[in-house]
Design brief:
VOC_core, 5 helices, Glyas_Fos-R_dOase_dom, four-stranded mixed beta sheet, alpha/beta, 2,3-Dihydroxybiphenyl 1,2-Dioxygenase, domain 1
Length: about 150
Amino acid sequence: MDIAAAAAHDRLMRLDHVVLWTKDPQTAMDFYTRVIGLAPVRFDEFRAGEAPFPSVRVCADSIIDLMPAATAAGIEATTGVQGGAGHPLNHVCLAMSKAEYDALDRRLQAEGVDTSARLNQTYGARGWAPQGFYFVDPDGNVVEARYYE
């Protein structure tokens, strides 16, 4: 289904969340809020022991859960999928405006994060993006940033 057909279909289905494993949720939260620029979700509750993990909001419909790696055994028991907890994920892609993209690139470089893995004319959910780059978060998760015109 192409973009126009998807829009015409007007589905209410959305990507709700992605779970990233983290050794230290507080370090991950700092990276995703201060460096990436996402809004924290349930971080105060997590620090108070009232939530099992914090999240960051990507948009109105989607969050990224910053799951402590120490909870992997419990997650496997909950899902019933042996070996599913901590399963490798290739990457998560964040789409943004060109201005946000440029600002993120500057913030990442200021933090010493390598953004040299560049892509030109790459295809994604909204069609062709003129440019993107990959970087690694503090836990080794690969994140792609891109913009659409």
